[in-house]
Give the backbone structure.
Amino acid sequence: MGIALVTDLYELNMAASYLRRHMVGPATFSLFVRKLPPGRGFLVAAGLEDCISHLASLRFEDADLAWLRGAGFDDDALEGFRELRFTGELWAVPEGRVVLANEPILEVTAPIAEAQLVESALVNHVTFQSAVATKAARCRLAAPGIALVDFALRRTHGIEAAMAVARLSAIAGFVATSNVEAARRFGLQAAGTMAHSYVEAFADEVEAFRAFAQQFPDRTTFLVDTYDTLTGVRAAIAVIGELGLGSGLGIRLDSGDLVGLSRAARRLLDDAGLGDVAIFVSGGLDEHDLARFAAEAAPIDAAGIGTQLGVSGDAPSLDSAYKLVAYGDRPVMKLSENKATLPGAKQVWRAGSMATDVLALRGEAGPVGHEPLLVPVMQGGERIGAPEPIDAIAARLASDLAALPPAACDLLEPAVPTVTVSDELAALARKIRSRHRPSK
């Protein structure tokens, strides 16, 4: 089957009604996040590549139409769906850019049935991936000196989610992923050690460590906390000496007081002349743990981040919205209490500090010294340019994070940069609001 049914039923209901009434005028929908989750001073825009792929592939297959017939859609609706393709344009904030609340992450302009049908999929991609990319960026900011590895595969809500997490973690500066298929698919470094079950399968730790090191002499990381952690470190030291192992070695701590144990392990390793053996930690870690490791100068070289990254544990959802802002030449807005929107296709203008973002109508000239965030990425239903490599997106994110006001990066009580609405956009909103205001 095709991807056209990856939508909510009410999107199909509305699209069928539009098509029956020959409503084919261009509609602009804006996708944005109404407010940042608690503890967030910024968001990282992500999911664009999957959005482009979805739009470019939009079509109803025969099997889709047969199912819709059984669901109660008539012949006119089915014929309209059969011919439907995405023929519009997409403006978007490139992946890896930092965005704030109410700033459009993408805007779709297309015949209204096309633009309506894709809402659910676009919101899904942008919401999940932006939440995870933001979590990954916070982890990277928390401890710049610790190498990070994606350990999220077994904890994400679905396999494809795990693939996205691996890609997004690389964009945020993680050095590797445990997810082998993601490493293959995206050209990432795969990384992994052993499980406690491996150690338990042997008579003792020395035998387990010896077997593993003989199998992988150039990339052995010993999991030392199956029984007693420091005894495990001593067993690793013994095997390293016995086999004369060289570079590429590490020990992994997966439980207990990781700061205290890392210090004790470092002393044992250094006393044995093994100063090059790295200390890797894991076990339910997040950005707050990483920040603590950095603040306490723990001798930790690398960390695996799993559950908390893969589901963005403390902020697993975003208050995202996809709202009609123009139909034909008529700008529109929603006035619902606490859910009001702003009319018209938009642009976000930014100066280097990110403390003076301006949200404006797309046709407005930007303030002096500001650059536009949204750029055209699809025209006439076709993508503009080739997919961006991960390295380029990662460099963009690193640049944006470096430009953020330090207070916006605080992990507990960030000061969120403000967004100013342009005079022209504010005036248009007032005009439309007055038109719909009840007469007294």
User: Anything to note?
Assistant: The first strand starts at residue 26 and ends at 33.
